[in-house]
Write a structure and sequence with these properties.
Strand order of the largest sheet: 1-8-7-11-10-9-13
Mean pLDDT: 95
Strand content: 25-35%
Oligomer: single chain
Distance between the termini: 36 Å
Order of helices and strands: EEEEEEEHEEEHHEEEHHH
Shape: globular
Radius of gyration: 16 Å
Number of domains: 1
CATH superfamily: PK beta-barrel domain-like
Number of strands: 13
Length: 215
């Protein structure tokens, strides 16, 4: 069961960058901030998303990522410049393993209460961030995708806070298993049915899995 430490809280507002000769608005650039930050129903104070049709909202209010994963990417990609927030995460957690955190798990961080709702699906803006067109596919295949969180109880959190699972989901469906089920194990209909039984699963993933069963 997860028991770790929040290393940094990272926020950033959308900015316009040039990609393939065109202007793109993105909120992937996050920077660590000092002191307590409010985790509100729709996200962290001072943070923002560019495309609300695929980012943000109640079920993706906060994105968490493990520092051990970032260290893996430093070595794999040869990028010593990867720091806290570099992968677009709001919360850099010392040890957040996708095998050990589950959809529906409820976490206490500071005095906020957060619930895991889905894995991350990397988009082209991750490629844009590092000028690596293949990075989203590599990122997804690795299983080191991090997770989105819903804010059940608003509160403040800050670097140094403990991160603890206070209520594990009984289904114990790991973030990594669900990501693989969605993207690489598409014939596993029993797995899809199991995932749909998890009440906390985000609506977008629920719809995708329901459509798979219908087909």
């Amino acid at each position: 069961m997860l028991s770790s430490t929040l290393l940094s809280v990272n926020v950033g507002l959308p900015r316009t960058v040039i990609h393939a000769g065109e202007q793109v608005v993105t909120g992937i650039y996050k920077e660590p901030v000092a002191g307590p930050v409010l985790a509100a129903r729709l996200g962290l104070a001072g943070d923002g998303q560019a495309d609300l049709s695929v980012h943000g909202g109640i079920h993706k209010a906060v994105y968490a990522y493990g520092w051990s994963n970032t260290l893996y990417w430093r070595e794999t990609l040869g990028r010593s410049d990867l720091g806290h927030g570099a992968l677009g995460e709001n919360l850099t957690i010392e040890d957040l393993c996708e095998d050990d955190i589950h959809i529906g798990d409820i976490l206490r961080v500071g005095n906020a209460l957060l619930q895991v709702t889905q894995p991350r699906e990397p988009c082209f803006k991750l490629a844009l961030r590092f000028d690596m067109p293949r990075l989203p596919k590599i990122f997804l295949k690795s299983g080191r995708v991090g997770c989105y969180l819903k804010v059940l109880e608003e509160g403040t959190l800050q670097a140094g806070d403990a991160v603890k699972v206070v209520r594990p989901d009984p289904a114990a469906l790991s973030v990594k298993t669900l990501s693989e089920l969605r993207h690489f194990d598409k014939q596993n209909l029993a797995g899809a049915r199991r995932a749909l039984e998890v009440e906390a699963l985000s609506p977008s993933w629920r719809t995708a899995l329901q459509e798979r069963l219908v087909r």
